[in-house]
């Protein structure tokens, strides 16, 4: 199965550097909707790109990979409320109508709310428009920047008047959850703001799942490179969710049995003075970062924890380079430490 998505230079910067807060795989969920006759709202939050199966029908008609409402005849419009995977600040959206041609939603609007933990939006919830009315087209990605800088937990997507949306991606920055004073957190976890900036190859699986919570569900739930037929090794450059001191590294090869890497290593750097620096220069520079974890052997379908193997007195880091030798698959990477 080919890589489900690449970091394309044609995507807006917010889509290349933000975390998809509407990812079902990270914990986003559908709360309620005005209508989901043809396809449920929750399907719009799926991580893989939408697919189209010409011969697939169900009891309601044509099966569509996304959210689709019935045809309205009353002059109103449809809406759906979703809970974000984590409270966060929204940078922008991708309202994706892939495969919706004669049945796509012609326009949309997005509202946001901040609801206390453990509660659901109700009649008293205050909604704020963070994306005004925008026109949508058939079977296309629609990228819209967001100028709201507040912290949100829920979104309400309005479509006018009805129709379908294949995927809603909400790119943003999760609120860092320190889990308690003085406690180590996973500094590279997507839900703590960790993000992937570049890689040598991601031919198989879903590379974004490398930073997801939990263990891999199958061999496609993680980062896997093609078989290397030339000298060298594969690598990935990542930004931590916060500048911090890394005390433990965990490399999980769950479900990777005949295709796990032989070895791995980690380099790190403190680039707090230079910002995110999502450039070719950053990738080149990463080859010369200091070694945090020397090369370590990996085994099949196992959790590997490294603590004593980490370089002593390394100092704080903002970015890491994760190297695998010579190629293969890794389900999850965890880098536990304390924000500096």
From TrEMBL:
It is an enzyme of class 3 (hydrolase). GO terms for biological process: allantoin catabolic process; purine nucleobase metabolic process. One of its GO terms (molecular function) is allantoicase activity. Residues 27-173, 193-339 form the Allantoicase domain. Pathway: Nitrogen metabolism; (S)-allantoin degradation; (S)-ureidoglycolate from allantoate (aminidohydrolase route): step 1/1. The keyword Phosphoprotein does not apply. Transmembrane segments: none annotated. Belongs to the allantoicase family. NCBIfam families: allantoicase. This is Probable allantoicase.
